[in-house]
Amino acid sequence: MGNSYKALSDYLRFLRDRWGLQVCIKDFSGFIPINKELDEALQPFLAHTSPFCMYMKSDPEHYRVCLSMIRLMYNKCEKHQGAYFGVCHAGLGEYVLPIRSGGTLLGSINAGFFQTTPRLTEARIRRTCRRCSPLNADEALHLYRTSIQNPVVEAKDILPGLELLAEYLGQTYRMLQPTHTQPNAARRYHNSSEDNILTHAIEYIRLNAGGHITVSDLAAFCHCSESYLSRIFKKRTGVNINVYVNKVRMELAKNHLLLSRENIAEIAAGVGFNDPNYFSRVFTQIIGIPPTEFRRRFQRDIPYGDDKEDPAPAPKSV
Fold first, then answer.
1. Predicted local confidence at residue 186, as pLDDT
2. Where is the signal peptide (predicted)?
3. Partners of 86 in the beta sheet?
C-alpha cells in the first residue's frame, strides 16, 4: 500500500474480521480527503457495505433516507461528549463516538451491529420494504439473517479502543490542519453523499471484478450520474474508474498466478479479460513485469499444500 495510515485500515479490518464489528467512519466536515493517504486508508470504511445494507440502499428512496440521517447524527453528536447508542431506520443498532478536534466536531465512528430486538428489527424491515416497492421483504430478511450478526465482543470491551481511535483521528486532523483550510460543516452536509458513493463504488468493483463492469452500471448502483461518479472517483483516488478496476483485477490475477495452476488465458477470463494478450499487456503496465515472469519469480515461494510434486512449469507465452 505504501501508506503511512495502513495500520489504521488494518485495525479496522481486524475489528471486522476477528470480532464481527462493522465500523464506519462518518465525515461531517470534509477532514478525511485533506490527506490523500488518510483518504486512501479509510475509503473502504466510509459507508456500511454489508450485503443487507447494500441491498436496502439499492432502492433510491431508501438510499436518500440513509443520507438524510447524517444531519440527525451530527446534531446528536453535538449534544453528546462521549459515545451513544442509536438505531438506524432499518433497525440496526450501533454505537456512535464523536470525533473532535478542539471545539470542532469532525465526524463520528459508528460501530455495530448490535441486535437487541431481532423480531422488532425484522418487523421494521418488512415495513420498510412495503414502502420501498422495489425491495423484496423476503430477500431483505434473508440478507439480514445471514449477514448481520451480533459482534462476538462486548461493547464495554471495545468502546475504550474506539475512543482512542476517535482521539487519534482528532489528533491527526490537528497535525494536518495548519496546512489546510478549516472544514465547513454546513457545506459538507450537501456533499456527504460523496463518501457513500465512493465507498459503494469501490465495494461494487470488488464484488464484480471478475465480470463485466461498466461506468453506467456503476453509476446506477451508486444512484448518481456517470459524470459525477467519474469526477468523484478521479478526485478521491487519483485515477479514473477503468484504471482503478484494472488495478483491482491485477491484484486478483496475482493471487491466481501464485496460488493456482491455471494458464494465462484462464486467469485472464477469471478477472474479466476476454483477450489474454490484452490482459498480459495491462498486467505488465500495472505490475511492471509480464504475468509469466511474475509467476516464474514468485510462485516457488508459495507452499503447494499437500502436493509433493513440483508445480507445473508456467507457460512461456500467452
1. 46
2. none
3. 94
CB 314 within 8 A of CB 296: yes
Q: What is the DSSP letter of 222?
A: T
Instruction: Confirm if 124 and 47 have CB atoms less than 8 A apart.
Output: no
Beta bridge pairs of residue 24: 110
94 touches 85 (CB < 8 A)? yes
* Sign, CA torsion 31/33/34/39: positive
Q: Domains of the chain (ranges plus CATH)?
A: 6-188 (no CATH), 247-301 (1.10.10.60)
Shortest CA distance to 43 belongs to which of 199, 258, 221? 199
| Rg of the Cα atoms in the chain | 22
CB 86 within 8 A of CB 94: yes
Find the Cα–Cα–Cα–Cα dihedral 154, 157, 158, 159, rounded to 10°.
Answer: 110
Cα dihedral sign, 229-230-235-238? positive
pLDDT per 10-residue tile (average), the chain, 318 residues: 81 92 91 90 92 92 86 89 88 92 91 86 91 90 92 90 95 83 51 83 93 93 94 92 96 93 95 95 96 88 45 42
* Residue showing cell 485515477: 239
pLDDT at residue 182, rounded to an integer: 57
Q: Are 223 and 63 in contact (CB under 8 A)?
A: yes
Least Cα distance to 250 among 296, 286, 207, 213 occurs for 286
Evaluate whether 75 touches 59 at the Cβ level (below 8 Å).
no
Residue 77 near residue 108 (C-beta atoms within 8 A) = yes
CA distance 268 to 287: 15
